[in-house]
Structures are given as C-alpha cells and as structure tokens.
# Entry
Amino acid sequence: MADINMVPFIDITLILLIIFMVMSPLLVQMQLTVDLPKSNAINTQADDDVVRIEIQKNGTITVLNKQVTISNLEHELILRLGKANKKTILVEADKNVPVQQVVDVFDIAKKLGAAKLGIGVLTKN
# Structure
C-alpha cells in the first residue's frame, strides 16, 4: 500500500475546527468590557446655541433646568428651538440610563429639525 491514509488527519482537523468554533464566541464575550468614557473637555460653543437635556438615572428629564416628562418634551423643545435651526441639542445622561430613553429624546429632537445633536455623560455634582 503506497498511499498515505488521510482520514485520521481530516478527523483531527475537523475536531479542532469545531473546538475553535465553539470557543471563539466565549473568548470574545469574556474580552468585551465596556466602560463609559470620562471627559474633561471644555465647552467651546456658546451656551446660547445649546439646549441641554439632562436625563437622570431615575428617569427624570430636565430641559435647561426645567423638569419635563417625555410626553411634554416635544412641546418644551418647540418653545426652546423656535425658528432657529442653528440650535444644538446636547443630551447628557447618567451612565445607568437605558439607551432607548436617550434614543427617544434624539428622535424627538431630530423630528423638530435640530441642527446638531450631541451626547454626553452627566458629571457627578
């Protein structure tokens, strides 16, 4: 018999492939840890053009130091934005706020035609 038997080599290769396919998602999941960044940046834009929306971890929404609900947010932003399309909306949320709540605020702001949207993390006072 002059031929080399390839069956054991193929078996070992397939077993190693299966092991790597099973282990790779577990390794990736163990390696991914997301920490929110901390920023010490200085605000370079004029405060007159910025509408600040703060979302606390208990769900409280504040627009320029005035507490509103998500249903009244659109009305409040209409008053704050007016006809000026050069306004920027800055959403500052606590790190424990669900992302969906921030996205809802962005949707309302975009629907009203805000020029720019920004996101930030609330600093501890």
In short: The first strand starts at residue 50 and ends at 55. Residues 47-121 form a domain with the Nucleotidyltransferase; domain 5 fold (CATH 3.30.420.270). The chain has a mean pLDDT of 82. The CA atoms of residues 83 and 113 lie 9 Å apart.
